[in-house]
Specification:
Elements lengths: L25 E6 L8 E6 L7 E4 L5 E4 L14 E8 L6 E8 L12 E4 L1 E2 L1 E8 L10 E5 L8 E4 L5 E7 L2 E8 L6 E7 L7 E4 L31 H4 L9 H5 L2 E9 L7 E9 L2 E9 L4 E6 L4 E7 L3 E8 L7 E4 L16 H8 L3 E3 L4 E3 L7 H5 L6 E8 L2 E8 L2 E8 L1
Parallel strand pairs: 1-7, 9-15, 16-22
Antiparallel strand pairs: 1-4, 2-3, 2-5, 5-6, 6-8, 9-12, 10-11, 10-13, 13-14, 16-19, 17-18, 17-20, 20-21, 23-24, 25-26, 26-27
Length: 416
């Protein structure tokens, strides 16, 4: 399930294990700025814990942290938590939303508890409209502290297009909006408790992934014309075995083609996945090298079509390339991810998310896979939290998803 929380519907669930004496739980106390105890509604999550736990503190503000579900180096539990507490006081609401370090072991009641300090809070309201300014009903809106976060709040817009999140402390938040017939949009919102302003957010018609403005990085490198043997073999670029190259094409006469990849301003892009297609077959592939040329062996009888994909800069296409031309060929990026009609690519974002069992999140530097549920198909296939989507392709009964991880490309197979 991609959306475990709808609106403010929260089902209480015990935080401490049934076999854990309450005096040995990992206690946290919710206090206000004057250190007075706050009875609060609480959501808490930790690495490897899914779904997040929803409960209440007692009247003295005490709540017990769950046992984390993931372990770090040395097999030690990863004891950090994302913690959201919202007070029961509607007249003077207070809230805390942040990451806290949990204790290394049980905390006895007589030893006291860790505490979080809640601050004045207010509702965060967004008005979702289309290009004509009309309200969009039924838009799915997600709120989180970070683009990839352990806790998310979800609401669906009403007939008036309003999405309201109750009792949110001041700060900067990520908002992601999905609506049928519109392009997904992600933006950062600065929330202030003394501001009753409602931000109107305009959605564009279409589908897929909208290119965020954060990708428009300053030009730091201009394309050169030097040649290089910097290309990576396909197998090296993808741990899943790489792209298959047609064997009959491989036996045909070939010659070297120098390929450059540029961003929309003309700066060289390093780390873009490049494919060369000829007569409906993928005949070569490699990884761009910035101002240096990527040299690939391609069929000598062209014309060729070049595709380039980068998890941050998007996609580009160059049609009708003839081998042997002077100066090589330059593919300019700038089209949204999943927009290029590559023959074997899956361009449906909903199909990719459905196969992953996870959402794809715009982080401003790429579209990253939000692996939260350790039992999701994405997690079972080896996708890691923060992997950036590059593309997905059909392979028989499987969907093969290529992600960018720590500067390299990794391919994972998912059942369709």
């Amino acid at each position: 399930m991609l959306a475990p929380y709808q609106g403010e519907v929260e089902q209480p669930r015990a935080l401490a294990g049934d076999d854990a004496p309450p005096t040995q739980a990992r206690w946290v106390q919710v206090l206000d700025e004057d250190e007075r105890a706050l009875a609060s509604r609480v959501m808490v999550s930790a690495p490897g814990l899914w779904p997040p736990v929803v409960t209440r503190s007692d009247e003295a503000g005490y709540v017990a942290l769950p046992e984390p579900g993931a372990r770090g180096p040395g097999d030690e539990p990863m004891r950090f938590y994302e913690f959201l507490a919202r007070s029961d006081d509607d007249e003077e609401p207070r809230a805390f939303w942040g990451v806290i370090q949990g204790p290394g072991g049980p905390v006895f009641a007589e030893e006291g508890a860790r505490f979080v300090r809640a601050s004045p809070a207010a509702d965060l309201r967004l008005g979702i409209v289309d290009a004509e300014g009309a309200p969009v009903e039924g838009a799915f809106v997600r709120l989180s502290r970070e683009s990839l976060a352990l806790l998310h709040l979800h609401v669906t817009t009403r007939a008036d297009g309003v999405a309201a999140f109750r009792q949110i402390p001041p700060g900067t938040y990520y908002v992601t909006i999905d609506a049928e017939g519109h392009t997904r949009r992600t933006l950062q919102v600065q929330h202030e408790t003394d501001d009753a302003f409602m931000l109107n957010v305009e959605l564009l018609e279409g589908g897929g992934l909208r290119m965020p403005e954060a990708w428009r990085a300053p030009v730091v490198q201009v394309l050169g014309q030097s040649s290089s043997n910097s290309s990576l073999a396909v197998g090296e670029a993808s741990s899943g075995g790489g792209a298959s190259i047609d064997e009959d094409e491989d036996e045909a006469a070939r010659e070297a083609l120098e390929i450059y990849v540029a961003d929309p301003q003309g700066a060289g892009v390093t780390g873009a996945w490049v494919e060369v297609w000829h007569a409906g077959n993928r005949v070569a592939a490699g990884v761009s090298a910035g101002s240096r040329a990527l040299s690939l062996q391609v069929p000598a009888d062209g014309p060729l079509t070049l595709y380039a994909t980068h998890p941050g800069w998007g996609e580009g296409q160059l049609v009708g390339v003839e081998p042997g031309g002077r100066g090589g060929a330059t593919v300019r990026l700038g089209r949204p991810l999943l927009s290029m009609p590559v023959p074997d690519r899956v361009r449906s974002m909903s199909a990719i998310e459905g196969a992953l069992g996870q959402r794809i999140v715009d982080t401003g530097s790429g579209h990253q896979i939000d692996v939260v549920d350790p039992q999701s198909p994405a997690a079972r296939a080896g996708v890691e939290r923060g992997d950036a989507l590059v593309f997905a392709r059909r392979a028989g009964e499987e969907l093969r998803v290529t992600v960018s991880r720590a500067g390299r490309f990794v391919e994972v197979a998912l059942p369709r």
